[in-house]
Amino acid sequence: MTEEILKKDGFGEHKFYHCLVADSEIPVETDENEDSLKVVAYALFFYAYSTWDGRMIYLEDIYVTPEQRSLGIGSALIKRIAEIGLEKDCKRIHLSVLDWNTSAINYYKGKGLVDISDRDGWHMFQMDHSCMKKFVDEN
Fold first, then answer.
1. Would you call 42 a catalytic residue per the annotation?
2. CA 73 – CA 20 distance, rounded (Å)
3. 14 in helix, strand or coil?
4. How many of the other CB atoms lie within 10 Å of CB of 131?
5. Which listed site, 36, 61, 117, 139, has its alpha carbon 20 to 30 Å from 21?
């Protein structure tokens, strides 16, 4: 992933994602010798569609720097995404968590999110770029 691709896909004519950021209140010096605020957290999401429920949001990634964790920043970002979803008449938010990230799993469960892999038996599959090519060529 490059900065150029992120800029094109998130800020170009056809946006593939939306991103919320949280910055510090302390200015930091940039390469251009200008003061700028330091990004301490972000949440990247996009809209999706369910044939069962209609509009939904997929929360692709959320990250808070280690020194800023447990301050409510991640919760504030997720709250804003939920507000956006409600404003856009989305019926749900989906997200994935790696099995080793027990603190995130426990946090989400504590906030009322449901692990649908447990409840519904869903398995998430991925078709990477080489698999896409192979699938197209063989079918």
1. no
2. 11
3. coil
4. 11
5. 117
What's residue 139's pLDDT? 81
CA dist., res. 123 & res. 5, Å (int): 29
Residue 58: what pLDDT? 97
Q: How many CB atoms lie within 10 A of CB 64?
A: 19
Q: Is 113 left (phi over 0), alpha (psi -120 to 50) or beta?
A: beta
HEC string of 74-119 equals HHHHHHHHHHHHHHCCCCEEEECCCCCCHHHHHHHHHCCCCCHHHH
CB 23 within 8 A of CB 40: yes
pLDDT score for 51: 95
pLDDT of residue 24 exceeding 90: no
pLDDT class of 35 with cuts at 50, 70, 90: low
Give the C-alpha separation, 65 to 81, whole Å: 19
CA gap 31, 76 in Å, rounded? 29
